Amino acid sequence: MNWTWFHKLGSPPHFYRIAGAMIPWFGWPAAVLLFAGLYGGLWLAPPDYQMGDGFRIIYVHVPAAWLSMAAYVALAVSAAVGLIWRMKLAELAARNIAPLGAAFTLLTLVTGSLWGRPMWGTWWEWDARMTSELVLLFLYLGYIALHDAFPERRTGARASAILALVGLVNIPIIHFSVEWWHSLHQGATITKLSAPSIATEMLVPLLVMALGFTAYFTAVVLVRLRVALLESERDTAWVRALGADDV
Amino acid sequence: MSEFFAMDGYALFVWPAYAVTVLLMAWAAIAPWLQHRRLRRAIRRGNR
User: Fold this and answer.
1) Whose C-alpha in A40, A54, A179, A214 is 20 to 30 A from the C-alpha of A7?
2) How confident is the model at residue A92 (pLDDT cuts 50, 70, 90)?
3) Distance CA A30, CA A27 (A)
4) Cα–Cα distance for residue pair A178/A14, rounded to 1 Å
């Protein structure tokens, strides 16, 4: 198998250029999907027969939760690639996914709390789903803290990559927590083997939002990576050569 | 319209949930974008 593309992708000037070209292809669809999802979720979807309009929090809570876990997997995979192949770009990717993943984890907890209060009568419960999502937040923060604790960036990247990989075990725990333990949180609605237990008019905006969140995340990570590349390669010829181009 | 904003009596929970989401996502996208622009300008100045 020819791995040239892989090595080429890892080259900072090459990736900087590709990322710049890819950002609009994720950014604009993200904007369109997010606005369509907001309109569909807040306006078109019918109220829930039990929760009335209170269920509409689903359209921000569930995509945020899905992204908080997907981002962690992306972080761990990038960290592993950095660890195995000493690929600088992968190390930068892991570190730059982390704050965004932490933000979506916090968003999941906050929107979940705002949903739990009217439906369950409590802002917070130390049950399996909520606790494991809180552990995810601490994993992100711990990863960032460990990564930045070393004076040499690449040592920090290697040490924190181990933490990121160990922390992967928490992802299936979050997902299956509602089956493995008695939980206040409802079970899976969409990611189960039988048909989704949600009306199509309610489901479509949710899928649109989930897709929008994912496209948004990809675009933002690419922007963050371009910034990280410029900062870490500041004194190289390719960065200085950028000065001639218009921004 | 006022019925829409009332959210079945859940306005106090639905709107804050959407507000934090919109604010956080807007900030998380704009901040690195501005940072990138600042950096590119600094690089261009540094070359002169």
Assistant:
1) A214
2) very high
3) 5
4) 44
In SS3 terms, chain B reads as CHHHHHHHHCHHHHHHHHHHHHHHHHHHHHHHHHHHHHHHHHHHHHHC
Could you give the number of structural domains in chain B?
1
Contact (CB, 8 A) for A107 and B21: yes
Tokens of A5: 């593309």
Alpha carbons within 13 A on the beta-carbon side of A168: 14
Contact check, Cβ <8 Å, A220/B32: yes
B1-39 pLDDT, tens digit each: 788 988 988 999 999 999 999 999 999 999 999 999 999
Q: What distance in Å separates the CA atoms of residue A89 and residue A76, rounded to the nearest whole number? A: 14
Structural domain containing residue B14:
2-47
In this prediction, residues A5-30 reach a mean pLDDT of: 91
Please indicate if any CB of chain A lies within 8 Å of the CB of B40: yes
pLDDT above 90 for A178: no
> Is the four-CA dihedral A113, A118, A119, A125 of positive or negative sign?
positive
pLDDT at B48: 59
Q: What angle do CA A31, A36, A39 make, to 5 degrees?
A: 125
Q: How far apart are alpha carbons A124 and A112 in whole angstroms? A: 9
Q: Answer whether B47 touches A (CB < 8 Å).
A: yes
What single letter denotes the amino acid at residue A55? F
Which SS3 state, helix, strand or coil, does residue A192 take? coil
Q: Hey, of A35, A226, A238, A245, which one would you mutate to test binding to chain B, going by the most B CBs within 10 A of its CB? A: A226
Domain residue extents for chain A: 23-43+52-236
The percent of residues in chain A predicted with pLDDT above 90, rounded, is: 74
Mean pLDDT of A37-57: 92
